[in-house]
Amino acid sequence: MAPPQGNNSGSTRKSGLRRRSLLAGAAALGAAGAVGATAGCSRVATADTGDGGHLLEQLRAKGTVRLGLAGEQPYSYIGSDGKMTGSSPAIAKRIFKELGVDKVEPFPIEFGSLITGLNSLQFDVVAAGMYINPERCKQVIFADPEYQMLDAFIVRKGNPKNLHSYKDIARTGAKMATGVGYAEIDYAKDAGVKDVGTLPDQLAGLLAVKQGRIDVFVGTAVTVFNAVEQAGPGSGVEATKEVQPYLDGKPVIDVGGFAFRSPETTLRDAFNRELHKLKRSGELLEIMRPFGFTKDQMTTIRAEEKCQP
Known about the structure:
Low-confidence stretches: 1-45
Helix content: 25-40%
Number of helices: 12
Order of helices and strands: HHEEEHEHEHEEEHEHEHEHEEEEHHH
């Protein structure tokens, strides 16, 4: 799912419904498919009656909310123990408990199907750190973002080509890859990179850099940092510092948040109120910190800012 943060709504002009990044999700989604199918059996009809929707009271009555997950670390995924984890589910558990819904259930699905799945009532909310952009805002409504994100590069140890920006990749002719559908494809092309390869995820990218098949793999900072840390000091690769992407000469900072069906403004607004309490108290960072997020990735940007064309 790829979106950005900063304050530049143009950052997603080209990326459309692309995902931010897809990390090792396929196996996890396969393992959890039965869970998702079971969770999706009970659907609650939603109609745009103009009254803000009734999903919140229905969720309270059921005591359960179904979360659409995209299988991407560290945002939302099924762990090796078969349980739902990630920054978004952790936030959802905390907020929905405050809203009177004690249980959260995972519904794993491909990133590109999250909005379709949400609007076809397969689950109740997208909890995948989805980037907010104008095209998505035409299809769903977003809570305010819980994080903002820049990019980072996976390079060989010592960074032999001295790659610290997309312009460096273009200037040196370094062989680059990123994930399928990542927003980083647009950022690279905007910087003049002629040949942008794609790989399934950060783990595949890290291996390709290690083996010398590519010079650099580009992804969101938190996923890159986590992948390199998990690979360990003997991996032969390293992560650069955060990289500022540009589109049309303007800096891009992507933001991600929870998505809801358009009629359900009552639920979205209630979620937002609890989210802002967590932001003000500092608890949001403490929830997200174990997944690799830092104070610099906390944001005060509002969803409406990123929904503007």
